[in-house]
Design brief:
about 375 residues, alpha+beta, six-stranded mixed β-sheet, three-stranded antiparallel β-sheet, 10 helices, 18 strands, elongated
Length: about 375
């Protein structure tokens, strides 16, 4: 497959210009952006409330509330007009668009509630028309600065993992190990955990999204740890599976199969593949080992300002993998009542393959 040429965006003004061109092509007056990650990507503002309007002919504005008066003026691109509104941001945006005579406005249908859409429709103002994934498509291709932030987040996670191994001892408690790991992430330079840290012992490791609890670790049990760091809003996401002593032949074999499956993906993925083709690279070795029904999720997902973003690497994904995309590769095998194995790394697509960003040991099953 030929790789689609798509240069990575590198600054909010350029990013908005690319969306502005799509607004004009759609013969619309403006695009309303309400997804918080998209808002940050397009303006620099990292608050938890706001609406951005990207006008077909310019005159972009950002509306938020008084809680963010100082923050928005420090963070947002100065080229964007900032309004601190007492009304809800969407109400203020509708009023402002109506005042300037905009008649047809696009909105992010994945990020606006039905209730908000109905309220807009019932009031006087421009007509709304939904679009999907416009900003997310841009976000999938990472700029050098974005890649640098993700690399740093991956390195912080590596260092935190090396330190947390000292806490994997008989009697350790899942939630206490998770809390210590999150402390270590911050100590090594993370803004905080990238998501709710997963620490699962023994049979609970067969739950792909187990939440840490009061379970104590005993000798001979599996330990699955899924976590990440944050640098300048950009996230890493890594999973390692270790064992406190010998967990037995079934789980040792599962580890070998998962390790080989991930290696097949790392060695085989190239730009131009679809997410479906990438997923198949890892799924085939697991199927061949008779464990296909134990691989219950997709191979991976995009990574950036959010821990799950485009592209998807799954059995049904037609997303094209392109140079400068960052994705996770995380095959897993889960055996109910016994335990689970997952190995996850972050990689960036390069012209001839992938570069692995996370570096914590994985090539041998760590018997502590």
């Amino acid at each position: 497959m030929a790789e689609t040429a798509l240069a990575p965006p590198d600054a909010p003004p350029e990013r908005r210009e690319r969306l502005r061109a799509r607004v004009r092509d759609a013969d619309a007056a403006a695009l309303l952006v309400t997804g918080l990650a998209n808002l940050r990507y397009l303006t620099g503002f990292s608050g938890s409330a706001g609406v951005l309007a990207i006008g077909a002919e310019g005159a972009d504005f950002l509306i938020t509330d008084g809680r963010y008066d100082t923050q928005v003026r420090q963070e947002a691109d100065p080229a964007v007009d900032v309004e601190i509104a007492s009304d809800p941001a969407l109400v203020a945006a509708r009023r402002r668009l109506a005042e300037r005579g905009d008649d047809r406005v696009l909105f992010e249908s994945e990020h606006l509630s039905v209730a908000a859409w109905e309220e807009w429709r019932e009031a006087e103002g421009p007509a709304l028309e939904g679009v999907r994934g416009w900003a997310e498509e841009l976000r999938a291709i990472k700029s050098p600065a974005e890649l640098d932030a993700i690399r740093r987040a991956a390195q912080i996670a590596d260092r935190a993992f090396a330190d947390i191994l000292a806490a994997i001892r008989p009697g350790a408690v899942e939630r206490e190990v998770a809390l210590e790991l999150e402390r270590l992430l911050v100590a090594h330079g993370s803004d905080g955990p990238a998501f709710e840290t997963i620490v699962a012992f023994g049979e609970r490791s067969a739950l792909p999204h187990a939440r840490p609890g009061a379970r104590r670790l005993a000798p001979g049990e599996i330990v699955l740890i899924d976590f990440g760091a944050v640098v300048a809003g950009y996230r890493s996401d890594m999973t390692r599976t270790v064992a406190l002593g010998d967990p037995g032949p079934e789980l040792r074999r599962a580890y070998e199969v998962v390790r080989d499956a991930q290696r097949a993906a790392i060695e085989g993925i190239v730009p131009g593949m679809t997410g479906r083709e990438a997923d198949a690279l890892a799924r085939q070795p697991i199927d061949a080992a008779g464990l296909g029904d134990r691989f219950v999720h997709s191979l991976g997902h995009g990574l950036g300002l959010e821990v799950h973003e485009r592209p998807r690497l799954s059995k049904k994904s037609a997303d094209e993998l392109l140079t400068a995309m960052v994705v996770t590769l995380e095959p897993g095998v889960y055996i109910s009542g016994l335990g689970g194995v997952r190995i996850e790394d972050d990689v960036v697509l390069q012209p001839d393959g992938v570069e692995v960003l996370t570096g914590a040991p994985k090539e041998t099953f760590l018997i502590l």
